[in-house]
Design a protein that fits this description.
The structure is a homohexamer. The first copy, chain A, is an all-alpha fold. The first copy, chain A, folds into 2 domains: 53 residues, no CATH class; 74 residues, AhpD-like. The first copy, chain A, contains 7 helices and no strands. In chain A, helix 1 packs across helix 3, helix 4 packs antiparallel against helix 5 and helix 4 runs parallel beside helix 6. Chain A is globular and about 40 Å long. Chain A starts with 7 loop residues before the first helix and ends with a helix. Chains A and D meet through helix 6 and helix 7 of A and helix 6 and helix 7 of D.
């Protein structure tokens, strides 16, 4: 078993805070409640190893994530999270509309309709702040 | 049945030419050979109705398409096409590497490995020009 | 961007009314609330460009749609809608049972179980009228 | 373990012969080479338990199967087989074109493009007889 | 149509009782309410034809099922059922944690997060007994 | 960006050698040719962070991986690799037959047929040694 890098957990949670300020506390508690290594392995891979890399800025990465989760259609809750994260990192509502329409091209109308529902929920959450 | 807009076919093929100069002749022949309306309906929706819209530039749209097809894992040939199209619209190889790594986060290592194979094929095709 | 055909929106909503009389008002409001072009692009493609075409009657098309959404397993809400639409266009409950069993063959028992739940909801909705 | 019904193998192969006359010999050898029970369990479930049931005729069932496999996008070889089977059970080329277009609506353009390729292969196979 | 083996229904429900004692009554009523043959065909195939076979013990089979449903991401309710069944057939919580982490490798972080939620629900259900 | 643990690459390749002795040289060259960090990030996560963990032995983990890739149906080449790896870590051919049949239950007959083809290729590769 890997003698994991001690800072991956912290790096991952710091990146997560950029996506949604309230997320690290909630997500870490949720994963710590499951297994002591879950934050480090799952979020460490996602956010410390990959998403925090240079080469694509965080705002564009969130657009890519929204497109992927919309096309896959198997993680509606996480699609909503990343739509809020997209708004929080500077993606505009107009761009989100365009991503939803593009999902329709590559994954079909039902996937786009579900992405639209998630986008509307993210817009409402932003309006309610 | 829709009395389809006469210019959708032309608009779609013009957009397709921006993705790969050789594509319109080949793709149109392939679809015309199947049904007279196939170009207009399938490519008209994809390229005339959606991808040519303002709001997201074509280069970023190709990044989104590569991410979606990589994550879905069900259209390897079209993933290769859109990787070439990404290069043709200004996406860098470094950015493509980053998208492949991001696919691993959201769709798993096998999806990323298949996207890597497609990316390497697109890089070789570009080198061979 | 396509200078879209003005009647696609109306054609799409007229077809949608044949699937479920209450649907056009609800669906159009839902999409208009998202983006002014969403009905025209998403429903225009689905219903005006494709589903309203000759060659396969609407009743058989709804059977195909139920089979596809059941097999894909990523759009339970829309599966329920199209099960109600199938009943509204003359598909029998016996035929729906058979489609659910056929989903099991091609997409597995869990997909069929989820399709069965959606079918039972559609049957109850029909009984409650 | 189920003391399986002795005639399921024969029933399954008889149904398979209606889909493609050459199929039973080839498919049975392929599965027998893997495990003695594979024909009986896999084809018995598919063809004896489900597809041979009354309630939907074989021709319509093949349309449903083509739609499902086209939408799922994970079994291109079997999609080609069922497209040939569809032609063999009386589905017309025009109907197959319509199913391919309908796949685009519910599963996206790449799925439809792959289904089109499989359909063209099935048409060529029929022409070559 | 297959003249189905009379004991498949009983065999299937007996196996289901080993997964969760309360399941047969609930599941059989749910399926009988849909169609008289549904238990026999769907559960007969799943549990009598396949899962009750020798060659892999039931405990390991439940680990495989949890991994498959977690990776597919399209049947969250059934994933929760099979996580409870895994616990009921001797799979440990530590093993379930490991399966969830392994889902992340092959199907991505969102699939693992959804599997984690289902696992936590199964753990709570076990604690509440 | 994570200041990655220096030994993850080596740990990952050592685990990979247990799956197939020839794999590390081939896989590392394939990934190094794509990006200097690809082995460390993709294989480091898969093999160093997760698969090498205690809690489930490597032989059972390969059974789980074969089940997942068989059910997902989007990575046939990697399914073949992991079927060879399963044989190399002590999974028997009888167990592989059972996993293939179980894939049919949860993901449908076409997924099982594709897994059977991959299994037969792995058996032939083992026979040819």
């Amino acid at each position: 078993m890997s003698d994991v890098h001690p800072s991956r957990r912290n790096e991952a949670l710091a990146l997560l805070a950029r996506l949604e300020p309230e997320a690290p506390a909630k997500v870490a508690r949720n994963l710590d409640d499951f297994h002591a290594d879950a934050v480090e392995i799952l979020l460490g891979f996602a956010f410390s190893d990959v998403i925090s890399r240079d080469g694509i800025d965080l705002r564009t990465r969130e657009m890519l994530t929204v497109a992927m989760l919309g096309a896959m259609g198997t993680a509606q809750g996480q699609l909503e999270f990343h739509l809020r994260a997209a708004l929080n990192t500077g993606v505009t509502r107009e761009e989100i509309v365009e991503i939803v329409l593009q999902v329709a091209v590559y994954a079909g109308i039902p996937a786009a309709m579900n992405a639209m529902s998630a986008a509307k929920a993210a817009f409402r959450a932003q309006d309610a702040r």
